[in-house]
UniProtKB/TrEMBL annotation:
Organism: [Mycobacterium] manitobense
Pfam families with a match to the protein in the record: LppX_LprAFG (PF07161)
Lineage, top ranks: Bacteria, Bacillati, Actinomycetota, Actinomycetes, Mycobacteriales
Protein name from the UniProt record: LppX_LprAFG lipoprotein
Superkingdom to which the source organism belongs: Bacteria
Predominant location: other
Subcellular location: Cell envelope
The entry's keywords: Cell membrane, Lipoprotein, Membrane, Palmitate, Signal
PROSITE patterns: PROKAR_LIPOPROTEIN (PS51257)
Amino acid sequence: MKFRFAIVIAAAIAAILALAGCQSGSDSGSGDGGSGQDAAGLLQQSAEAMRGLTGAHVVLTAEGQVPNVKVTTLEADISNKPAPVGTGTVTLDMGDAPGTAQIIYVDGHLYSDIAEPGTFVDYGDGNSIYNISVLLDANNGLANALTKIKDPKSEGGEDIDGTKTTKVSGTVSTNDVSALVGLRRAPEKEKTLPITVWIADGDPHYVVRAQIAPTDDAKLTMTFSEFGKQVTATKPAV
């Protein structure tokens, strides 16, 4: 009887030790290192998806004083195949009161009727307002920025306009996002900026939202939808 009791006790102790070992092994894989590794892999998948993206609807908002960016809100349909085109509206900081205008990007030029509604002016590459062609540019746009993010960390899930996303935060050099955020800083004067991206959980892992803080009291937020949208534009009379 005592022998059987000893066997039962020994079996119970073995089971407890085995359970503790499983829990310990599980905990060891859920630390910051695992989170960072998962975030890095997701960023890579998202960069590949964004490089293949041919069009989308984008809403860009600027909060605070973003250097060299007069746009407070931009909403446009953009496409990069067969060539970059875009149409939409912008709200600009005009001093006393904001002004809203139409924008058309075609043949490498941005046209807008900022000065007088209905009368378009050629603003060249559009950098004086905002160059929307850079957003889907594989070399200078968001796809490139995703590959340059340092110390990525997963911040959990979030629902954005009905799309389930994973929030990833990290840092990026001004040299890698200058075109995106309108910075005009010499390469040797680079700074590290905080960046946060919300990546779609479903495949393809497009960026649904991206937020960059060019300065301590300013941030630029881009929200994407209607992925794969095709856009056409005609050069306006100027």
